[in-house]
Amino acid sequence: HAKAAGRNTFAIFGEHMDELLRRRRKLEQDLRLALETRSQIEAFYQPVYSAEHHGLSSMEALARWKHPEEGFIAPDIFIPIAEEIGLIHELGAKMLEDACSVMADLPFISMAINASALELGSDGYPLRVLSRLAKWNIDPTRLEIEITESLGFGGEGRSDRNITILRNAGVSIAIDDFGTGYSSFSRMQKLAVDRIKIDKSFIDTVEGGSKPLIEAMINMAQAKGLKITAEGVETDEQRDTLVALGCDSLQGFLISRPLGRAAVIDLYNGTKKQIFTA
Ligand code: C2E
Ligand code: MG
Ligand code: MG
Ligand code: MG
């Protein structure tokens, strides 16, 4: 900025902050509008490969925001904003609705959705999820809810009670980004879940030092009877190592990138015969 070069650094900093704040407020307004109109934000679906069944067996719904002026905005940007301005519940409901409509079209497939800790910790969350499934006539055992580790879990709080209600109804719970959060072996002892998803950062370095860590996670998970997904698998070498170590599911660009509704329905319909046949 040639214009600002002569000013003192505080003025430059202030100007920059103003710009950031303006941009942020605009994003908030746009996000409200995007959720009200119910277009713009929709689910994409990343196929999950089952090493057990040697085929595609499920998928993960991932939020996409197609901003009218800015193009696609990443969930890592807009999810935290939705949480801060209280719109995460609407966003979660829209994602579940999209996911249900795909499950209705693909009755042989299961689906994972991501839930914010704020959703999971809120009164009535299990009822909202279960009544949405009932509305679509979808068996709760076909749904998995991914949660990231937070200090709120593994105790006696609302989140844990909600997890219990959902699991009693047949919904599975997975810990996302496993290994990067607050899990300790003592917390894992208390936490009743169905699956861990080993974070991509460990998968990236499986050939470069993190293999013993992954082995420890897998041993712990197997001892507790949990299923194990490897996240962010990008190479054949990673896939072979992770299957040999005991991961039952693989997800990553090697298998597929997240796909739009039509593409994922075509994919799963086309590969239907391979699914669940060992
Ligand atoms: P996540 O749930 O851990 O999802 C995995 C992320 O890794 C996705 O990014 C996916 O596109 C990306 N990914 C998958 N395989 C690969 C790979 O092989 N290489 C690379 N480089 N990336 C891969 P995405 O879609 O940008 O989502 C980021 C995060 O945003 C998600 O992480 C999740 O925590 C959050 N998120 C997405 N959708 C929702 C949602 O509907 N609700 C909530 N609460 N959070 C969501
Ligand atoms: Mg996830
Ligand atoms: Mg993850
Ligand atoms: Mg993540």
Topology at a glance:
Layout: H1 9-37, E1 41-50, E2 55-67, E3 71-73, H2 75-84, H3 88-105, E4 110-114, H4 117-120, H5 125-135, E5 143-148, H6 158-168, E6 172-178, H7 185-190, E7 195-198, H8 200-204, H9 211-223, E8 227-230, H10 236-245, E9 249-250, H11 261-270
Parallel strand pairs: 2-4, 4-5, 5-6, 6-7, 7-8, 8-9
Antiparallel strand pairs: 1-2, 1-9, 2-3
Helix pairs in contact: 3-5, 5-6
The structure holds ligand C2E and magnesium ion (3 copies).
What is the CA-CA span between the terminal residues?
Answer: 62 Å
SSE class: alpha/beta
Apparent shape: globular
Radius of gyration: 21 Å
Structure, explained:
The protein is an alpha/beta fold. It is built from eleven helices and nine strands. It has helices at residues 9-37, 75-84, 88-105, 117-120, 125-135, 158-168, 185-190, 200-204, 211-223, 236-245, 261-270, and strands at residues 41-50, 55-67, 71-73, 110-114, 143-148, 172-178, 195-198, 227-230, 249-250. An eight-stranded mixed barrel has the order 1-2-4-5-6-7-8-9, surrounded by six helices. Strand 8, helix 10 and strand 9 form a beta-alpha-beta unit. Helix 3 (88-105) packs parallel to helix 5 and helix 5 runs parallel beside helix 6. The longest helix is centred in the N-terminal third of the chain and has 29 residues, at 9-37. The N and C termini lie far apart (62 Å). The model has no long low-confidence stretch (mean pLDDT 90). The structure holds ligand C2E and magnesium ion (MG) (3 copies). This is GGDEF/EAL domain-containing protein. Keywords: Plasmid. Residues 24-272 form the EAL domain.
